[in-house]
Design goal:
Blueprint (H helix, E strand, L loop, with lengths): L1 H5 L8 E6 L4 E5 L7 H4 L5 H20 L2 E2 L8 E3 L5 E3 L4 H5 L6 E2 L29 H16 L6 H10 L10 H9 L1 H10 L7 H8 L4 H13 L7 H13 L3 H13 L7 H13 L3 H13 L8 H12 L4 H13 L7 H13 L3 H13 L7 H12 L4 H13 L7 H13 L3 H13 L7 H13 L3 H17 L1
Antiparallel strand pairs: 1-2, 3-6, 4-5
Pfam family, one: Sel1
GO molecular function: ATP binding; protein kinase activity
Organism: Entomortierella parvispora
């Protein structure tokens, strides 16, 4: 704990000492009133999310400059103050308590003991008995945190670009923590932060003057700043101009960002054809994200493009061969549903497995489902449970539902109504109406949980609002019973 107590940075939790009694170890730290990022994420707006990522990166800049790898960056280890300021936590504590977390000093020595959380571990660490940790494994985990923050929402191009680069399968291609800060805030901002603390530099006019001598990469990051209003007023039209300059020089991420702007009419008139053209330009250079996006467009026949299964499959396979998880998942679904190809459950399973091993929660849940129902393979509840628990650790609703089913019927596990309710409750809290119905029924009847008709009725009402017919019928019966009672 000594090295933890010596750490002093705005975005690192301050440790003041350790105490113990006969049963417990107590670590005395700053108080983070805002809880952790995993808990707070649903209530955050875009600006908060981006600022938090920047602050995590600043914390990593500090750690890495002191030859320290965190090795368990995830939402649960990113604490927030009352004002949502980041405090990275869980350094070395886990080594004392024998959990799966540890921060360690690198120096000139390679770290080989396995630590981390499934779903946040970099590809180079998975399945290895001697995983080689590096600063870039922290960067990959930060990319997964970024991914967690944007599930189910449109992603601004600057955020997407940084996230995709963090999640690159090749550690050498991932940015440093410093580069992530520069991507969002600008190179000069970072230099000034080092020299003058919180003072800011570079007016918008300064930025415009500098862009004429910037490289394609620098123009791209400058465009990201202008797009988001970092150190300047938001200027989408100005950002598009900078994206265009960079894209014309062959910068693939700028081409993807420009495609996004054309697609959604941000900073420029909406033009689906131009959006497709710029995606094609990036795909032609071998950009896996562009190949995946373009493949899906041809698969669905969207954005004015004629449906072309052959071209879609070529693009998705090209991206999947580079390890792009989204492409692997798309190929799995194509083979499972027989979209443009003969349905092939074995091939679907191959692609789902590849995506699952890459940490994709949906693919992990699908693998659990395949083994659970024996689709194209023999039923194997143990393998199903393994994949479902990995997906559940990333809050995947399908995994919650299948785990509840396992415990409800005792498939591969001892029958346990209480555990079934626990898993249904997780899915219910994420808005699944079937889970809401099941939780409601069990609360009303006192199955696996203490009977509570009022709470049960509340869950049934939520399911009814989403159109669950059985919930509507049960609510009606409950209300009639209440009227008879009173």
């Amino acid at each position: 704990m000594k090295f933890v107590a010596q750490l002093a940075h705005q975005h690192i939790i301050q440790c003041y000492g350790v105490d113990r009694d006969s049963s417990y170890l107590y670590i005395i730290t700053d108080y983070a009133e805002g809880g952790n990022l995993k808990q707070a994420a649903p209530g955050l707006n875009w600006e908060d999310k981006k600022r938090i990522i920047i602050e995590v990166a600043l914390g990593l800049v500090y750690l890495h400059s002191h030859d320290i790898i965190h090795r368990d960056i995830k939402g649960g280890n990113i604490l927030l103050t009352k004002k949502n300021e980041v405090k990275l936590c869980d350094f070395g504590i886990a080594k004392i308590t024998a959990s799966a977390t540890c921060a360690c000093s690198v120096g000139r020595h390679q770290i080989t003991e396995s630590k981390g959380t499934p779903g946040y571990m970099a590809p180079e660490l998975r399945g290895s008995t001697t995983p080689a940790y590096s600063f870039k494994t922290d960067i990959y985990a930060l990319g997964k945190v970024m991914q967690d923050l944007v599930r189910g929402s449109e992603i601004p191009p600057d955020y997407m670009a940084v996230m995709e680069s963090c999640l690159d399968n090749d550690p050498k291609k991932r940015p440093s923590a410093k580069k992530i800060v520069e991507a969002f805030c600008g190179v000069h901002w970072f230099q000034e932060m080092n020299n003058k603390g919180d003072e800011r530099c570079d007016t918008p006019d300064d930025k415009v003057k500098t862009t004429r001598i910037l490289s394609a990469d620098e123009e791209f990051y400058m465009a990201c700043n202008v797009f988001s209003g970092v150190n300047a007023d938001v200027d989408h039209a100005g950002a598009v101009e900078l994206f265009m300059r960079s894209a014309r020089k062959g910068h693939t991420r700028a081409q993807i960002a420009l495609s996004y702007c054309y697609r959604h009419g941000i900073g420029i008139l909406s033009d689906p054809a131009e959006a497709v053209n710029w995606l094609q330009a990036a795909a032609d250079q071998g950009s896996a994200p562009a190949q995946t996006a373009l493949g899906r467009i041809y698969l669905n026949g969207s954005m004015g493009v004629r449906q072309d299964f052959g071209r879609a499959l070529d693009l998705l396979q090209a991206a999947a061969s580079q390890g792009h998880i989204g492409a692997c998942t798309s190929l799995a679904e194509v083979n499972l549903t027989g979209t443009g190809v003969h349905s092939d459950e074995t091939e679907a399973m191959r692609w789902f497995r590849k995506a699952a091993e890459g940490g994709d929660a949906f693919a992990q849940a699908r693998m659990g489902q395949i083994y659970y129902f024996g689709r194209g393979v023999e039923k194997d509840y143990a393998k199903s449970m393994n994949f479902l628990l990995m997906a559940a650790s990333q809050e995947q609703t399908m995994a919650y539902l299948l785990l509840a089913d396992m415990y409800r019927f005792g498939r591969g596990v001892s029958q346990d109504d209480e555990k079934a309710v626990d898993w249904w409750l997780k899915a219910a809290e994420r808005g699944d109406m079937n889970a809401q119905y099941n939780v409601g029924v069990r609360l009303v009847k006192g199955i696996g949980v203490e009977k509570n008709t009022i709470n049960g009725r509340n869950w049934l009402a939520k399911a009814k609002l989403q159109g669950h017919e059985m919930a509507r019928c049960l609510l009606k019966a409950i209300d009639q019973e209440i009227k008879r009672t009173f």
